[in-house]
Amino acid sequence: PTADVKEEQITPIDEALESVKTKIESLRNDQDKMFSSAGKLKELVLEISKASIVSSRRPSAQDS
After folding, report:
1. How far, in Å, CA of 16 to CA of 9, rounded?
2. What is the secondary structure of 42-61 as a DSSP string?
3. How far apart are CA 57 and CA 38, in angstroms?
4. Burial class (CB within 10 angstroms; exposed 0-12, middle 13-18, buried 19+) of 52
5. Highest taxon of the source (predicted)?
6. 49: nearest Cα among 59, 61, 57
7. Alpha-carbon distance values, 40 to 10, 17, 34, 46, 51 (Å)
8. Which of these, 18, 19, 54, 63, has the minimum number of CB atoms within 10 Å of its CB?
9. SS3 of 12, please?
């Protein structure tokens, strides 16, 4: 009986490979999300820095 139980516990290689594939795919998707959000953050920071540079160069209402 113990031998039967052991055999049942062993996962078929195909199933194991499939689960590994799906895990890798989900990891890739997570990485893509991370990279895209990081890119958006960089764009935001660039826009903010540009805006601050422009506003610092622009003469204020007090000067006019």
Report:
1. 12
2. HHHHHHHHHHHHHHHHSPPT
3. 29
4. exposed
5. Eukaryota
6. 57
7. 45, 35, 10, 10, 16
8. 63
9. coil
